[in-house]
Design a protein that fits this description.
Radius of gyration of chain A: 35 Å
Helix content of chain B: 25-40%
Oligomer: heterodimer
Radius of gyration of chain B: 24 Å
Strand content of chain B: 15-25%
Strand order of the largest sheet of chain A: 2-3-4-5
Number of strands of chain A: 28
Largest interface: A-B, 35 and 32 residues
C-alpha cells in the first residue's frame, strides 16, 4: 500500500495551514537483493518480514524498522512453501509444505521434523502460533481446529484438543488472537475462537449479512472480504458486501457479536487496515483512502478521501500472510524484478489531517486518542487550544474543547499512561481491578438482556465509552498475566479486548513509538495547559480580560468535574484579570466561594490588587489569617497601622520573629503616647532582657519627651 | 411650641417627612419645603411645625458640626431620627416611645429604613435634587415621592398600624445582602451562567444579579447597587414575593400582603383628598394626571409570563396584550439608566440589566436580548437551579442550634442571621438587652468613625441579662457578630468559649482573638 509522499508534518503551528500530506514514507526504504526469492510473507505474530528462497529464509524485524538491518538467514530443506511462520519464541520455523504437511525447523540445532495429517481426506488450510497456555500451535483444517503443544524433549507435536466443525476458510490475526472460521454454502456462518494467554474463549456462532443480487443467486463470501481489526483495544470484524457496496462492521464481545452499522464503499476492491486506531478503507479502484474513527459516534469520515498511488501492485496478500494487520508498516514491494525488492515502512500521521477539520472539539478528541505520535498530537492540541482562545472562538466551543483535554488527562492519569512517558512514579491501578470485579455480578445478572444492554452501551455518552479503551491502557500496569491480556470487563459487558500494548511483553508490543518519543499519551496536564496555553497568550489577551476569565472558568469547571488540580498561577491570573477590568463584585464571589482556591500567592495577589479596592484587600488579609500565615499576617496588620491588634495576634499565635522596633515605630508614628507606652510595656513584660536593649532606651526616651511636651501643652 | 404637640393627631403612630432646606426660606412660602409628609392628613400647620422644629435643630447643630448635623433627638415620648439623604434634603422620622406598645427602637435601624427608602427611590427615579432642578415648582418631585413612599410603607403595615423595625428585629440588619452559601462546583456553574447571561446582550456592557429563593447567589453590580437591586428583588420579584400570600421568611417583607387590601386602605385612603393636594399643589386642575408617575413598589403588579420572564405594567402598557414597557432602573456605579429584565425558573431569579443607550430600538431590542438569553442560557439555568436546589437546606439552613445570632460583614455588606422563626423563641428580656447592647455598639462605632476615620475598631462585649441569658457583641476587622445565648452557663468563660466555637466553625475564626 504505497502512498504519495509529499511529506510535510510541520503544520503544528496553526490550523488549516494547507497541509496535504497523509502518508509519510520512512526513507530510505529497505532494499534487498535476494536471488531466487519466492516472494514475501509477513509474520504478524513476530512482526517479521520473511522472504524464503528454495533453501533459505531471510527475515527482517519490522519493529523497530531499520532499512539498514541485515536479514537473519536460516537454512531450510528444499520444497514448496505454502506459508511460513516463526514460533513466538522464534526458536522454530514452521513451513507449510502442502495441504497435508507442515515442516518444523529448529533454528539452533537445524533439526527438522514433519507433521502430517492423519487421514488423506483432511486438508490443512493454514496454521498459526499461539501464546495460549495449553497449546503452542493451531492448525486449521477443513474439518476443524487441531491444537498442538510442542514438546521440547521429544521435538514433536502433541495433540491437545480438537474442535470439530466444517471450515471453508479462516481468518486470523495475532493482534486480536481471534480466529474466524467460515462455513456454510455462502461461507457466511462463522465460528470464532479467541486463543489468548488467558485461555480459549469460544464465541457464539453468528452469520454475516449478505445482500442478494437477484432472487436466486447466492453470493459466496470470500476470505479476502473479511478483516479482523483492532481499534482502541476493541475487536471488530469488517466484511465487504460487494452487492450492497457496503462495509459491515461487527464488534466482538465475549458473549455476543453485535453489528455496528455499515460504511459505504466506492470500489469493488477494498482493503482495510488500521493505523493508530484509525480505520483506513482503501478503495482500490477509486484510488482513494477513506479514514474513519470508529470511536466517535459519527460514521462520517474524519477527512476528505486521500489519494492512493499504486505502483506495479497486484494485491497486498501476495506479500503478507494476512493483509489486515499491517500495523504501522505498510509494505510495498516492487515485483518488477524477481530478485530485487524495495520495502518502504510507512509511518502514517494524521496530525495534518485533523488540523484542517473544523469541528475543533472532535479534532482534539481524535488527537487525544493518538498513540503513535503522542508528542506531536500533544503539541498540536496545545496549539489548537491556544489559537482558539486567541481567535476568541465562542465560549461554548472552547469549553467543549477544554472538557476534551481535561477528561483525557484525567483518564490518562487514572490509567497511568500519562506518567509512563514521563517516568515519574506510577499511580497504583487497583481501581481497575476493583471496578472489574464489581462488574462481574452485572455480567451474570445482565446476561439475559445482554444484547440490549450492549447496544445501549454503544449509544451511551462518551465519558462512559472511554472506559472501553481503559482496559487497553490499564492492563499495561498490571503485572498479572491474566489481566495483561485479552479478557477485560467493561461496563457490565464482558469485552474481548485485543492484545494490548503490554510493555512487559515485548513479543506482543503492537504499537510502539518509542523511537519517536518517550510520550505514550498526548494528554495535557494542568501545568502544561497553563505553561503552554495561558501563560504565552496572557499578554496578547489583555484587551479581552472578561473573555479570558470566562475561558479560565471553563477550565476550572472541567477540572473540578474530573477532580484535577489546576495550576495555581491560573488563580493569580484570574485575580489580575478581574481586578484589571474592575470586576470587584465577581472577584469577591470567586474568592468567597473558593472558585479561586486559597494559597499564599493568591492572598498576596489579592492584597496587591486590593490597593484599588478595600474589599479585595480585606479578602487578602482574611485569607492570610485563615491560611495561618501568622508572620505575614502580623506584618500586614502593622503595615496597615493596626499594631495593637498585631501584638495581640502575635502573642496568641506565638509569632516571635518580628522585630519589636517595627511595632514601636508604628506606635510612635500614630503619635499616641498611651499606645506607645502600652507597646513598650508589652515587650518589657514578654521579652526577657528587653529593658536593656537600645530599642527600649530609644523609645522610652521618646515616650518621656512626648509626655512632657503634652504636659506643657 | 413643645414636641408633645406634634403627636396629637397621631398619638402612637409614626411621622415621616422629607424636606428641602433650600426651599421656602421666605415667609409665606414655607410650604414649599415640604416634599413628603406622612401621615398626609395631618394639618399643614402641624406638618410645618414638625419640619420647622427639625430645621431649627439642624441649623443649630450645624454650628458645632457643619459636616454632620444632628442624627437623633431623644425627647421624653418621641425619638426624632434624622437622615440627610442628599445635600440639604432631609428625611426625618418621628416615632413614639412606649413600653407597653413595644415601641422600643434602635435608632440606627430606623435610619436604615430612611436610607432604604431613599436609595430605592433614587434607583427608580434618580436623585431628588435632579427632580427638583427639572421642575423647580416641586410638583414633579412630590408626585413621585408620595406614591413611592406610600407603597414602601405598605410593607410595614400590620392591621391598622405601621410596624417599624423594633427591638424584636435586633438580630437583623437592613441594607445588607443575604447570600446563599454554595460549594465550589455550584459556584463555578453559577459563574459560567453569569457569563452566558451577560453575553446575551452581545457586546454591550451589562450587569446581572442571580437569586435563589430570597438569597443572593451572584452579582456583578457595585455593592451599593447590589443592595438596592437585591432589596427590590426580594420585595417584589422573587417567587415568594410574586405569589402573594406565600409566607416569607425574609425580614424585608414582613407584612402580610392580604392585610393591605382590607385594612390598609383605611390608613392610606384617607389621604385621597390630600393625595390630590400633593399631586396638584401647583393649582393644576389635571391633578395626578399632570405627571406620568411610575410606581415600582406597587403591590401585586409583577407576573411571571409564559416565557419565564417577569412582566409588569407598572412602566406602562397593557399586561393583557403583553405589550408592556420594559422597566428601567438607574445605577449609581455607571450613572446610567438600565433596562431591567427578570427571568424566573423555579426558585431561581435572574436579573439582567442592559444600558438604555446600547439598545437603539427600545422594547423591540430588549425582546431580542431576551430571546438570546433563552437560547443561550436555558440549559445552564436548569442545571444551576438543580444544583442549588440540591444543596439548599431550607429556610432553617443557617440555624445554629443553641445560638441566636446576627453576623454582619461590613466590608461586603453581607449579613446572615438565625431564621426569624427561631429568634421569636427568645424571651423579650433577652431581645431588649441585645437591642440595648446594639445601641451602645452603634454609638461606639459612630464615635470611632469620627475619632479615627478609616480605622476599624475591635470590640467585644458580653452582658449577663436578668433572665440569665448572655447578650454578646463582637466587632473585629469590620465584621460584627451579635448573639444571644439563653439557658447558658453563668461563667463569662462559657460565653467567650461559645463565641470562639461559633467563630471557628462559621466565621473562619474571624472572631477568635484571645
Amino acid at each position: 500500500m504505497a502512498g504519495k509522499a509529499s511529506s510535510s508534518q510541520t503544520s503544528v503551528g496553526g490550523l488549516g495551514s494547507g497541509a496535504v500530506s497523509h502518508v509519510f514514507i520512512h526513507y530510505p526504504p529497505l532494499r534487498c537483493n535476494i536471488p531466487g526469492s519466492r516472494g514475501f510473507y509477513y509474520d504478524d505474530g513476530n512482526k517479521l518480514l520473511i522472504s524464503p528462497t528454495s533453501d533459505q529464509v531471510f527475515s527482517w524485524k519490522t519493529v523497530p524498522f531499520s532499512p539498514n538491518a541485515a536479514p537473519n538467514i536460516d537454512s531450510i530443506t528444499e520444497g514448496p512453501i505454502c506459508s511460513i511462520r516463526f514460533s513466538l519464541d522464534e526458536k522454530l520455523i514452521a513451513v507449510q509444505r502442502s495441504n497435508t504437511s507442515i515442516d518444523f525447523l529448529h533454528r539452533e540445532t537445524g533439526e527438522v521434523f514433519t507433521h502430517r495429517c492423519k487421514s488423506e481426506s483432511e486438508s490443512i488450510l493454514g496454521f498459526f502460533w499461539t501464546d495460549c497456555p495449553s497449546c503452542d500451535i493451531v492448525v486449521v483444517k477443513i474439518s476443524g481446529l487441531d491444537l498442538f503443544a510442542y514438546d521440547h524433549a521429544s521435538k514433536s507435536l502433541a495433540l491437545v484438543e480438537t474442535k470439530k466443525m466444517n471450515v471453508s476458510w479462516y481468518v486470523y490475526t495475532h493482534e486480536s488472537r481471534l480466529v474466524l472460521l467460515a462455513s456454510g454454502m455462502q461461507c457466511k456462518s462463522f465460528h470464532g475462537f479467541q486463543l489468548s494467554s488467558a485461555g480459549i474463549i469460544r464465541l457464539p456462532k453468528f452469520e454475516m449479512v449478505m445482500a442478494k443480487p437477484e432472487a436466486n443467486s447466492k453470493p459466496v463470501l470470500a476470505s479476502e472480504d473479511v478483516y479482523i481489526v483492532t481499534v482502541y483495544g476493541r475487536i471488530y470484524c469488517l466484511q465487504v458486501d460487494r452487492v450492497a457496496m457496503v462495509l459491515h462492521s461487527y464488534r466482538f464481545y465475549r458473549d455476543a457479536i453485535i453489528q455496528q452499522g455499515s460504511l459505504p464503499i466506492y470500489s469493488s476492491k477494498v482493503a482495510v487496515s488500521v493505523v493508530d486506531n484509525v480505520l483506513l478503507v482503501h478503495q482500490v479502484d477509486a484510488k482513494v483512502v477513506i479514514l474513519y474513527d470508529i470511536f466517535s459516534d459519527s460514521r462520517a469520515p474524519i477527512s476528505a478521501p486521500l489519494p492512493v498511488l499504486l505502483r506495479g501492485f497486484s494485491r497486498s496478500d501476495s506479500f503478507t500472510s494476512r493483509p489486515s494487520t499491517k500495523e504501522s508498516e505498510s509494505l510495498q514491494a516492487s515485483d518488477s524484478n524477481d530478485n530485487e525488492s524495495i520495502v518502504y515502512g510507512d509511518g502514517w500521521t494524521f496530525l495534518a489531517i485533523s488540523a484542517s477539520s473544523s469541528e475543533i472539539p472532535s479534532v482534539l478528541e481524535f488527537l487525544q486518542r493518538r498513540k503513535l505520535e503522542a508528542n506531536k498530537a500533544k503539541q498540536l492540541c496545545l496549539a489548537i487550544m491556544q489559537t482558539m482562545i486567541l481567535e476568541c472562538r465562542p465560549i461554548t466551543m472552547v469549553a467543549k474543547a477544554m472538557d476534551v483535554l481535561v477528561t483525557s488527562y484525567a483518564h490518562s492519569l487514572k490509567t497511568g499512561t500519562y506518567f509512563k512517558g514521563i517516568k515519574t512514579e506510577r499511580t497504583p491501578s487497583s481501581v481497575s481491578n476493583v471496578s472489574g470485579s464489581g462488574q462481574v455480578i452485572d455480567v451474570n445478572t445482565g446476561r439475559t438482556d445482554g444484547l440490549g444492554k450492549s447496544l445501549q452501551r454503544e449509544s451511551a455518552p462518551r465519558v462512559n465509552s472511554v472506559s472501553a479503551s481503559d482496559t487497553e491502557d490499564s492492563s499495561s500496569l498490571e503485572p498479572s498475566k491474566i489481566s495483561s491480556n485479552d479478557t477485560q470487563f467493561d461496563g457490565g459487558k464482558v469485552d474481548i479486548g485485543a492484545e494490548s500494548c503490554t510493555t512487559g511483553n515485548p513479543l506482543n508490543a503492537s504499537v510502539s513509538d518509542q523511537q519517536e518519543s518517550q510520550l505514550t499519551s498526548p494528554a495535557i496536564s494542568p501545568d502544561e495547559m497553563y505553561k503552554f496555553v495561558f501563560a504565552p497568550i496572557e499578554e496578547e489577551m489583555i484587551g479581552e480580560p472578561s473573555y479570558l476569565v470566562a475561558i479560565i472558568l471553563e477550565l476550572f469547571r472541567s477540572a473540578n468535574l474530573e477532580k484535577v488540580k489546576v495550576h495555581p498561577n491560573l488563580f493569580v491570573l484570574t485575580i489580575q484579570l478581574l481586578a484589571r477590568s474592575e470586576q470587584y463584585a465577581e472577584l469577591g464571589l470567586f474568592v468567597i466561594n473558593k472558585i479561586i482556591e486559597p494559597s499564599k500567592e493568591v492572598a498576596l495577589q489579592l492584597l496587591e490588587s486590593g490597593r484599588q479596592n478595600f474589599q479585595i484587600r480585606k479578602l487578602g488579609s482574611d485569607m492570610m489569617r485563615q491560611l495561618s500565615l501568622h508572620q505575614d499576617y502580623v506584618l500586614l496588620l502593622v503595615q496597615d497601622g493596626y499594631y495593637l491588634e498585631a501584638l495581640r495576634y502575635a502573642r496568641k499565635h506565638k509569632v516571635t520573629t518580628i522585630r519589636p522596633s517595627l511595632f514601636l515605630e508604628a506606635a510612635f508614628t500614630s503619635n499616641d503616647s498611651q499606645h506607645l507606652a502600652a507597646v513598650l510595656r508589652f515587650f518589657s513584660d514578654f521579652i526577657p532582657g528587653f529593658r536593656s536593649t537600645s530599642d527600649f532606651f530609644t523609645y522610652y526616651h521618646i515616650l518621656n519627651e512626648m509626655n512632657s511636651s503634652s504636659v506643657v501643652a | 411650641m413643645g414636641l408633645s404637640s406634634i403627636g396629637t393627631a397621631n398619638e402612637e403612630g409614626v411621622q415621616l417627612c422629607i424636606f428641602d432646606l433650600r426651599r421656602g426660606q421666605r415667609e409665606g412660602q414655607e410650604l414649599d419645603k415640604i416634599l413628603y409628609f406622612f401621615p398626609a392628613d395631618l394639618p399643614l400647620s402641624s406638618q410645618l411645625s414638625v419640619i420647622g422644629l427639625s430645621e431649627g435643630l439642624i441649623t443649630f447643630t450645624r454650628i458645632f458640626s457643619p459636616d454632620a448635623a444632628c442624627e437623633v433627638i431623644e425627647a421624653e415620648r418621641h425619638s426624632h431620627v434624622f437622615y440627610e439623604a442628599e445635600p440639604d434634603i432631609w428625611m426625618v422620622m418621628i416615632v413614639a416611645k412606649s413600653k407597653e406598645a413595644e415601641a422600643i427602637w434602635r435608632i440606627d435601624a430606623l435610619r436604615e429604613v430612611l436610607k432604604e427608602i431613599h436609595s430605592l427611590f433614587v434607583m427608580f427615579h434618580g436623585c431628588i435634587r435632579t427632580l427638583l432642578d427639572k421642575e423647580p415648582g416641586g410638583g414633579l418631585t412630590r408626585a413621585h415621592l408620595y406614591p413611592f413612599v406610600m407603597d414602601y410603607l405598605r410593607d410595614f403595615l400590620f392591621g391598622k398600624k405601621l410596624q417599624l423595625p423594633s427591638f424584636r428585629d435586633c438580630l437583623k440588619e437592613r441594607r445588607t445582602v443575604q447570600m446563599l452559601t454554595v460549594g465550589r462546583e455550584a459556584a463555578i456553574e453559577v459563574q459560567t451562567l453569569v457569563r452566558i447571561l451577560e453575553s446575551s446582550a452581545g457586546n454591550m456592557p451589562c450587569f446581572s444579579l442571580i437569586l435563589f429563593q430570597d438569597l443572593l447567589v451572584s452579582t456583578t453590580l457595585s455593592p451599593e447597587d447590589t443592595i438596592n437591586m437585591f432589596t427590590y428583588a426580594v420585595l417584589r420579584l422573587t417567587p415568594l414575593a410574586l405569589f402573594s400570600g406565600a409566607k416569607s421568611w425574609s425580614y424585608l417583607r414582613k407584612g402580610n400582603s392580604s392585610s393591605h387590601v382590607s385594612t390598609g386602605s383605611t390608613l392610606f385612603s384617607t389621604g385621597s383628598v390630600l393625595e390630590q393636594f400633593y399631586g396638584s399643589r401647583d393649582a393644576s386642575p389635571a391633578g395626578d394626571n399632570r405627571y406620568h408617575v411610575t410606581r415600582p413598589l406597587q403591590h401585586d403588579k409583577w407576573f411571571k409570563g409564559k416565557d419565564g420572564f417577569l412582566v409588569t405594567d407598572i412602566w406602562g402598557g397593557d399586561i393583557g396584550s403583553l405589550n408592556v414597557t420594559t422597566p428601567t432602573v438607574w445605577l449609581q456605579q455607571t450613572e446610567e439608566r438600565m433596562y431591567l429584565c427578570a427571568y424566573q425558573y423555579k426558585s431561581l431569579t435572574l436579573i439582567l440589566l442592559i444600558p438604555l443607550s446600547s439598545i437603539l430600538n427600545g422594547d423591540q431590542g430588549v425582546s431580542i436580548v431576551k430571546q438570546q438569553l433563552l437560547e443561550n442560557a436555558s440549559l445552564k439555568i436548569l442545571k444551576v437551579e438543580e444544583k442549588l436546589s440540591k444543596g439548599w437546606g431550607g429556610e432553617n439552613a443557617y440555624h445554629v442550634s443553641g445560638y441566636r445570632y446576627l453576623l454582619v460583614n461590613g466590608n461586603r455588606d453581607i449579613s446572615r442571621a438565625s431564621p426569624p422563626a427561631k429568634v421569636t423563641t427568645l424571651a423579650k428580656e433577652s431581645l431588649l438587652a441585645l437591642n440595648k447592647l446594639r445601641e451602645e455598639v452603634d454609638a461606639e462605632k459612630n464615635r470611632a468613625k469620627w475619632d479615627n476615620p478609616g480605622r476599624e475598631k475591635d470590640l467585644e462585649v458580653c452582658i449577663r441579662v436578668k433572665n440569665n441569658a448572655w447578650a454578646i457583641a463582637c466587632i473585629t476587622g469590620g465584621k460584627e457578630l451579635y448573639m444571644v445565648l439563653e439557658k447558658a452557663n453563668e461563667t463569662l468563660l462559657y460565653a467567650s468559649d461559645a463565641v470562639e466555637k461559633f467563630s471557628n466553625r462559621y466565621c473562619n475564626g474571624a472572631f477568635s482573638l484571645d
